[in-house]
User: Fold this.
Amino acid sequence: MAELNERYQAQDIEERWQQRWEADKAFATQMNRQRPEYYVLEMFPYPSGNLHMGHVRNYSIGDVIARFRNMQGYNVLHPMGWDAFGMPAENAAIKHGIHPADWTWDNISNMRRQQKALGLSYDWDREIATCHEEYYRWTQWLFLLFYERGLAYKKKASVNWCDSCATVLANEQVIDGHCWRCDSEVRKKDLEQWFFRITDYADRLLADLDDLKGWPDRVKTMQENWIGRSEGLEFNFDVDGFDEKIPVYTTRQDTLCGVSYVVLAPEHPLVERLIAGTEQEAAVRAFVETVRSQSEIARTSTEVEKEGIFTGAYAVHPLTKALVPIWVANYVLYEYGTGAVMGVPAHDERDWLFAGKYGLPKKIVVSPVGETLELDAMTDAYTGAGVLVNSGQFDGLDDETAKKAIADWMEKEGRGTRRVNYRLRDWLISRQRYWGAPIPMIYCPQCGIVPVPKEQLPVKLPRNVRFDQSNVSPLATVDEFVNCTCPVCGAAARRETDTMDTFMCSSWYYMRYTDPRNTTVPFEESKVNYWMPVDQYIGGIEHAILHLLYSRFFTKVLKDAGLVNVSEPFKNLLTQGMVLKDGSKMSKSKGNVVSPEEIVSKYGADTARLFILFAAPPERDLEWSEQGVEGAYRFINRVWRIAAHYQPTLAEASAPLDRDALGEAEKTLRRVLHITIKRVTDDIGNRFNFNTAISAIMELVNAVYAYRDQQAAPNAPLMQETFSVLLRLLAPFVPHVAEELWSQLLVEGSVHKQSWPDFDAEAVKVSEVEIVVQINGKVREKLVVPAGLDAKKMEQLVLEDAKVQQLTAGATIAKVVCVPDKLVNVVVKKG
RNA sequence: GCGGGUAUGGUGGAAUCGGCAGACACAACAGACUUAAAAUCUGUCGGGAGUAAUCCCGUGCCAGUUCAAGUCUGGCUACCCGCACCA
Assistant:
């Protein structure tokens, strides 16, 4: 056994252990039915070039969980890979003339090196990259599976277009009218595109949120809002003088008799038919053009004044048969519901404003109980509950009953049906970009749209492509790629030149990890079902809707297809907070970036990990503090020094610990030791409060120092136990230091292969406890009493206490509340 | 507008089931060691009154429940996040 260096030198030990772990394949995992399985996963990164502190935080959290579960005896899967397709690679090609593939693979090597320098316990044999042929082959295979199941379809639609990225975007990728990646304004464009029928799964995506007990409420609520389910009634208005019907959707059919007009969205096809050849034709057409030329943001803002125009046509009210005017207005969305709504000014805020502006009649049909509404006295629509009035046969019903009654009546009359509507739209998955998985479809002049046969996959990305910023997909310019033969009839055909949204690649990667080298199927059933679902998923809140919703959708489809037997991919989700500097997110433009590499080379990976886990609980934002980093570094040094101090003692330890022969100082140290085991185990395993786990270990180290200061001759077996426990508790957080000290001070073998320490309930027991004595709820005294006293004895001891007697003299004791081993509260009344 | 979250010393944060508010750190100050500095070690460290023992106040604000409230209930305020003309 060599003597420990006086000083801790991270650089001396970290690389050595990293190489050792790699050579030993220390974290490689196989299926093993003898041990319970545990799948811990951090969201795989986009290979942008360098790790940032957010990555370090993400991986440190995952690594602590993985190492902890491993030591607890679980068979742990902890893989890493690369979300490697996407725009930045193409931008680099355009800007610097580097091929996206070269750029990406170079970045992957660099970031992998940085990850390894952090000492993360990944099973590197399972590494994947979505841009690898053997990965995107299966992404394409899954596209075909969706196509076969009727879940992939092509349609022309008004879609989101980002000029700067020169591609379309899914609704989920438009944030406040701006592109999620480059933040430039998104505009609408009519294009024929591939969609995934995620709306078919809307109800299940919503309902199954209830089963996700291990997800933050925040994320579930966001998905709930995004899916946006509403229950209502769809019914038709007849158009006076036309053989046409206007279907409308409403959730407030109780206000049916308050309808004083009907509104169509400007895009509604009926508009043209109603105005053709009329006086209004030119004016309405001009209005529609104006609205359609407005940007998405301008148009959908609630701030913008509602505008509309009368079409000249009238609809027939289904109940009263009255004629109501048909308008076109900017506030009606064509994509939602039926693209037409009934106008009820008295009971809808938007309709109130619109009717007010254009002088349309308002009619009260719902009256709050015990009150009479007067139109003249109203400043706003009444949208609350009430009883129906002015509604013929439905008068006197409360609004909820009326909803049912009117829906029943409509259904009986054959005029309408109850309908559930969702805000969620189908997922637009085609992208007019090069660096993605090609959509495996062929357009044949004879056969139409033909899928590429699965055995011909992958449809490979050609390497030689010109990159310029034109608005066509770069693949469309490569003749050898585009020109092909129809797999059905052999005729000359054209390939689809769009690639898939990168979110498709990341919607199933967690399943590929379970069987990453399979060349015949995406993953083998036995393997995927052994590991799935992911027990603990860790990542940023920015994916609350995007990646997490898509992955849930994929899992459900794959379950329906019999590929996997779970319907939810991620059992528990931890959304980590951001890493801030000077109060804002680290970013190049703000110049407040701290590079992980610098920190690792200055202090070591252990310090970086320890600081980032100690500074805040994982869900909260974390303020970077150079002084905090120094503090973490100091703590590691403190552990190192006390270990060096006791190295000779540990070398002598041979006899087992005699628990009955411990002195007071030893008992105290051992009690702290075992309380720490309990706290750290609970903090890591149940609460994910790594900051308090670390502070508990710090207290333990402080207790070891205190023991050293008062005890000239240390108890060698106790020190053996103390360091054995301390290093195992430290192992998940600071794996290199723990490993180094373990190898120098204790038995052969890796600390990471040791079992997690059990706590000894006997050691934690105390003979005396300090209890708090309150008088009328205020702390007045502290007494040391024997542990485990019952309430009666506690009360007796407290009432006998001189100070208590003095303080309660002359007062009547009304009540005494006793909490065993903790507190006694004496309630007194004056007098 | 709807939904969700957050608010505790100079700072990050702790208090897990309603039971001593401020654990553990950071910073600051004082001291020890040193020729000196660094490193390390020790002490003080929410506010106020008092020589002191001790007492009063204090977890965004206002009420309430309770023997007891940072924690529970009701009502606000500020900030952050999501959705938003969704009929």
Notes: Chain A has 27 helices and 34 strands.
